Amino acid sequence: MIIQKLFKGYESPIEFSDQRKLSFHDYPVTMFKGNIRIPKGYTHKNAGWVDEMNKIVGPLKINFTGQYYITLHSCGAQCRYYTVFNLQNGQDLSKLAENLPSSPESE
Q1: pLDDT, tens digit, for every residue of 85-100?
Q2: Average model confidence (pLDDT) for the chain?
Q3: Given 3-state DSSP classes, what are the helix, strand and coil percentages for the chain, each rounded to the nearest 5?
């Protein structure tokens, strides 16, 4: 949902008619190797990492583009949501979408 909100209303700069196949290898990133910033509300327990609601989340490690941590949360009864954190500076990117203006389609 966060990704959809961030990019809703934006057109892709990539033409679908392009014959070139996109590959992550074409976009190298530098992996952050310093001490990571633990997201606010996250703690480590015997079962692993838990969020502020004491629900288990994936291992706290960089898993996207060299400095980000994307993880799945459960809110019960087939309800799920994702959060995105920059583990280099501790920024919660999930909050960015809350400040975006509404797109004309949603009004």
Answers
A1: 999 999 998 877 677 6
A2: 80
A3: 20, 25, 60
Residue 14 near residue 26, CB atoms below 8 Å? no
Query: From the CB of residue 51, how many other CB atoms can be counted at a distance below 10 Å?
Result: 17
Q: Which two tokens stand for residue 40?
A: 């606010």
Nearest to 87 by CA among 107, 106, 69: 69
Burial of 22 (0-12, 13-18, 19+ CB in 10 A): exposed
Residue matched to tokens 């994702």:
82
- Residue 7, CB half-sphere, CA atoms under 13 Å: how many? 6
